[in-house]
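Re: weekly structure request thread

Next one in the queue (72 aa):
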Amino acid sequence: MPMKITNRSRQLLVIPLNSGATIHVAPGEEAVGIDPIEVKNNPALEKMVRRGWASVAESAEEAHRLKRGKGR
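Done, posted below.
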């Protein structure tokens, strides 16, 4: 299930993903559709979450779309 990362800080977050790529998330914005492999066991992202700078959750929009049978 795709993941969503929300920037809860007042600054731009540069989030390194497990693949080596990075994403830039502006304050108050969300990055959606991220593969769970990119965020699981990611020490840098976990540190941002512990500090309250970011939150990670399953993408509700994607989950809703898949439940209605309009998935891939």
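The first strand starts at residue 3 and ends at 7. The helical segments are 36-39, 43-50, 60-67.
Next request, please.
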